[in-house]
Specification:
Largest sheet: 6 strands, mixed
Number of strands: 6
CATH topology of the largest domain: Rossmann fold
Distance between the termini: 99 Å
Number of helices: 9
Shape: elongated
CATH architecture of the largest domain: 3-Layer(aba) Sandwich
Order of helices and strands: HHHHEEHEHEHEHHE
CATH superfamily of the largest domain: HUPs
Strand content: 15-25%
CATH class of the largest domain: Alpha Beta
Radius of gyration: 27 Å
Structural class: alpha/beta
Number of domains: 2
């Protein structure tokens, strides 16, 4: 009946409170969008080695639209960009050792432990440093040049009892790259620090733990006790 409370409530076409769920629907949609994007970005960073915070921003903005991009680019292939062959020793029964070098204190301690404890038993030594796959152009050139200088500095400090090492700068996911180089050189032992270099190691997760789980070869984490 005109003028009745029922008629007044429905005259605007919608009763009060009928649209209360709309803000919640929007919030749920935004939350789902962000969640899918950020989870995809985390997978992209960890599995692809793309250790840059910007990918989380991209994932949050693109949401589900980031999934095909992550699948297409999500796994960085290992590429050698700077290799300097060393001089292995023809020592029967000698160890072939690969050391992951990233300039971090843990990495330096691991390399120093190899120098102190395996100098007389190593027939081949390979030092590998992994560069980011996200850098391009001048940034990539600068990073690789700095990595080469860092490797050269470590080589210069090695004792003469060790064989002249092969040094490699490769691009890719750190664990994948180290495993690929280890396979190429058929090494007996991989040596890495327990913790990598700052933010990149935190973004990618522990490379040392990843190697320990996946490597078919012996992996030494953090160095050796003095003999």
């Amino acid at each position: 009946m005109p003028g009745s409370p029922r008629h007044d409530r429905t005259r605007g076409g919608r009763a009060p409170g009928a649209d209360v769920s709309e803000p919640w629907s929007v919030l749920l949609f935004v939350a789902g969008w962000l969640t899918v994007g950020l989870v995809t970005a985390a997978w992209f960073v960890i599995r692809g080695g793309h250790a840059h915070l910007l990918w989380y921003v991209v994932g949050g903005l693109l949401g589900p639209l980031f999934i095909p991009i992550a699948v297409e680019r999500g796994h960085s292939r290992t590429r050698e960009v700077d290799v300097r062959p060393g001089r292995p020793r023809a020592a029967r029964g000698g160890l072939r050792v690969l050391v992951g070098v990233d300039g971090s204190p843990d990495s330096d301690r691991a390399l120093d432990a190899v120098a102190r404890t395996l100098a007389g038993t190593t027939s081949e030594l390979v030092l590998v440093s992994v560069a980011s796959p996200d850098r391009v152009g001048d940034d990539a050139t600068a990073e690789r040049a700095a990595t080469r200088r860092m490797l050269d500095d470590r080589v210069a400090a090695l004792p003469a009892e060790l064989p002249e090492p092969t040094t490699e700068v490769v691009v890719g996911h750190p664990a994948d790259a180290l495993l690929a180089v280890a396979e190429t050189h058929d090494v007996d032992l991989l040596v890495v620090g327990r913790h990598g270099h700052g933010l990149r190691d935190r973004l990618l997760g522990s490379v040392a733990d990843d190697l320990a789980r996946r490597s078919p070869r012996a992996v030494l984490l953090g160095g050796l006790a003095d003999r």
